Amino acid sequence: MKKISLSGIKPTGTPHLGNYLGMIRPALELAKDYQAFYFIADAHALNQVGDGGELRRMTFETAATLLALGLNPEEVTFFRQSDIPEVFELAVILAASTAKGLLNRAHAYKAAVDANLTSGRDPDAGVNMGLFTYPVLMAADILLFGSHVVPVGEDQRQHVEIAADIAQAFNRAYGEVLVVPEAVIREEVAGIPGTDGRKMSKSYGNVIPIFSPPDQLHARIMGIVTDSRPPEEPKNPDQDNLFGIYKHFATREETEAMRRKYLRGGFGYGEVKQALYEVLERAFAAARTRYEGYLLDRPLLDRVLFAGAEKARASCAPLMNKVREAVGFRHGEATHLPSPAG
Ligand code: ADP
Ligand code: TRP
User: Fold this and answer.
1) 3-class DSSP state for residue 121?
2) φ, ψ for residue 12, nearest 5 deg
3) Which one of 141, 148, 149 would you pick to mutate in the ligand 2 pocket, going by the greatest count of ligand atoms within 8 A of its CB?
4) Which of 17, 184, 285, 294 is the most buried (most CB within 10 A)?
5) pTM for the full predicted model
6) Radius of gyration of the chain from Cα atoms?
7) What is 4-191+298-327's CATH number?
8) What percent of the chain has pLDDT over 90?
């Protein structure tokens, strides 16, 4: 039996190169050796998106992105989180095995509280329960499928650790029912820089979308902040945003040639930006065409996600029954319940 790799991506905006390098590409690589479950975490996005049409649009965009980048739904169980009612059931069950203190220390919640305290507001001002219990829902996603590894970016490490803590607490109470998961994080892509040099993130507005049309991609790249030293000075490639993105898309020879250019000096950043544009076009032009095709066919995306959800529900049913039985809920399948008609 293959081990299980599972990951989710929130449909909260257009996927960018940080998402691609930090999560999508490693997850697709793991799918070769693991049984993979990848999904669109639309329930996690509720905290950020408060508009149904918008959430649905971004769900389709994110699904189209993954398919265009090579996710094969015949091999990967690919689904929409909200199509799996078992996730929500398990989240409620897991909440009873989750120390509140564990969630008080979760980064996103703690950051919101700290920001409130700094500005003299109530510690929980603007914090909803969706934000506070976010790690429990994520633990349910992970534990429901018996996941062994969870490919994510560095910022998700703590969430996977919380899921492992919750699994252990549950197992202490009820026996070895849940698999304790582990995050898989590639250090070399842990913090891909954005156009302003900070970590690329939708919340900073500094992203390079994976599938911008060529003219917009070009404009984005030309807008990447660089230092203002004269072109002839030698530069350290490892401290430069442009090189920090370029090296992940260039071949080894191209990367080495570029590294030597930096160390030697005597070139302009305009030249590097053009080279970056070219390697990105090379990497994504064909996938972009596929992406645009998928976006025009929502019924197809719906069918793919729904077929994935059916497979996912069948996969999680045995474990879910084990959990129900362990905690003292009903025994066996729902079809064994007496019908309401009596
Ligand atoms: P954002 O920060 O833009 O809102 P998400 O939180 O939706 O991105 O992240 C989705 C996945 O992509 C996560 O696994 C996250 O760790 C990864 N990721 C996001 N930004 C980066 C980045 N700049 N470098 C590497 N990985 C990233
Ligand atoms: N919290 C993750 C993010 O913001 C998305 C996510 C939801 C996820 N459920 C998951 C990732 C389960 C891995 C496993 O990027």
Assistant:
1) coil
2) -110, 5
3) 141
4) 17
5) 0.93
6) 22
7) 3.40.50.620
8) 86
